[in-house]
Amino acid sequence: MGDLRDAYGHALWDYLQRKGRGYEVVEREDGYVGISGGREMYFADYRNWPSRHRQAIRYAKGRVLDVGCGAGRHALYLQRKGLDVLGIDTSPLAVRVCRHRGLKHVRLMSVNQISPALGTFTTVLMLGNNFGLFANPERARWLLRRLHGTADQDARIIAETVDIYQTDNPFHRPYHRLNRQKGRMAGQVRMRVRYQKYATPWFDYLFVSRKEMEKIVHGTGWAVQRLIPPSGPLYIAVIVKAD
What we know:
Largest sheet: 7 strands, mixed
CATH architecture: 3-Layer(aba) Sandwich
Strand order of the largest sheet: 5-4-3-6-7-12-11
Shape: globular
Distance between the termini: 47 Å
Number of domains: 1
């Protein structure tokens, strides 16, 4: 069942069906591999979310676009709160999982396909480190301008990322240097996800510091209003319309 490239989706579907107990493997272009935090976190109830997620979700209002909705944990929570939520994901099986779990509106779609045809949104949700889906700073600025045209006047983007400079892993800093030598941001990671016999295509994923976040957002019609928490490697930015 499903595409051999849909490693992430197969991991979610197996967990939903109580099959397979493995983890997704995240493979970086330089050969470094890591293990995901576990699929149970993609299905976690509100009470088991990280505190930064519980704080950030309070800023969601109006019509919500959940970008990279995965198994739908955030979208389903907001739907139960009575909000109109549209989840989008590039994984066919993730979309199937969301429908199976009761998400009313979900589409197979990438962030690059967002357009005014979807209507307007008050909240764009990018939790689960999904600021990374912007891929690189140029595409991030282009997509932020595009989102500006599909957002209400009082709209906000709630986006999570990782400050990759706050690390003691000896394998990360040489990769940061390699990226800079290639003219890329230090946190512009080329990676793929593997699960059992499945593997996604290689893709870019962007991790940024707080200062880099503000620099990217500047001039796109948006402004960083709040950082949750204000320090530490993992954080969420609440980004609001600046004009």
